[in-house]
Write a structure and sequence with these properties.
This protein is α+β, with helices and mostly antiparallel strands. It folds into three domains: about 80 residues, Rossmann fold (3-Layer(aba) Sandwich), CATH 3.40.50; about 60 residues, Dna Ligase, domain 1; about 180 residues, 2-Layer Sandwich (D-amino Acid Aminotransferase, Chain A, domain 1). Helix content is about 30%, strand content about 25%. The protein contains twelve helices and 17 strands. The strands form three sheets. Strands 9, 10, 11, 12, 13, 14, 15, 16 and 17 form a nine-stranded antiparallel beta sheet that branches. The chain has a four-stranded parallel beta sheet with strand order 3-2-1-4, sandwiched between helices. A four-stranded antiparallel beta sheet has the order 5-8-6-7, with helices on one face.
Amino acid sequence: MIGILGGGQLARMLALAGLPLGERFAALDPSSSSGVRDLAHLIVGSYEDPAALDWLAEHCDVVTHEFERVPAASARRVAERTPVHPNPHVLDVAQDRLSEKELFARIGLDTPAFATASTRAELDAAVSSVGVPAVVKTRREGYDGKGQVVVRADADLDRCWDALGGKDLIAEAWVDFDRELSVLAARSTVGETVFYPVVENLHREGILRVSRAPAPALAPELQSAAESHARSVMTELDYVGVMAIELFQVGGRLLGNEMAPRVHNSGHWTIEGAITSQFANHLRAITGRPLGSTRPLGHAAMVNLIGTLPNLDEVLRVEGAHLHLYDKEPRPGRKLGHVTLVDDDPEDLEERLGRLQALVD
């Protein structure tokens, strides 16, 4: 049995990928209505519940997580009795933006200039160091645009400090990037590593809206550089599973933004668009099986369904639309599902993507 810390849409898609492989799943989640509830043995409880964690350790052959905010101490408790992949130290790094940036520096991945602050006076100094405009973020807990404020002038600093709750912060220089990219890789228990094509991502209000794979007109040397950085990060962390690294392209350079130690939203296109999906490869990796081919089956695009659902009948009238719903109640800013398109002809794909976006937006 495979245990999952977290029971949302990523756990749901992991289970859907694993059922044809004969895998069974258990998931720990605080909500009884979590998306994986009909596909796994659901344990409703806190991620810090000793009894729940011990149940997973006793009954599961391996345990993984679907999001990086799981307490590292909880993963360590499980790891005392059963394998946990990725390993708990990965959570220590991924949960702290400073640790993440320091990791990128160690493996040679450039980042935007950054400085830390734990007091109001240090915030002044940090922003002065990186310059304005700057993006000030909480070192922990931020995701989907949460926990960050854009500072465009010194007059914004009081508002920024109050908005972010006076927590430990990191100020990052504003990057005038050409586009946002991500690279997904999988690494097995024996160190076998495979890479998916680099993806181009479009965000709005801090939330991923559209991904295109492979990223259009990407220079081969940037694909190679992204793979090299991902390989170095995974080797440094002794990583097992799927990882995504979010990148800024600035001319012919890549800058590291952040990493996601899990299956990732920008890889959802792989379900229909690659020989082996990111979800299947994550399961192969953590269970010690050979990794599958990451070769794309054409040009692919993914559109997230955010906040409210469009007319689903109209979505399904778009030729080749693959609809995935997460069985979640609508709420502003919430990911309710996604739609993927795959086509051999990138121009045909863009035409259908335009029709789909008009329905969603």
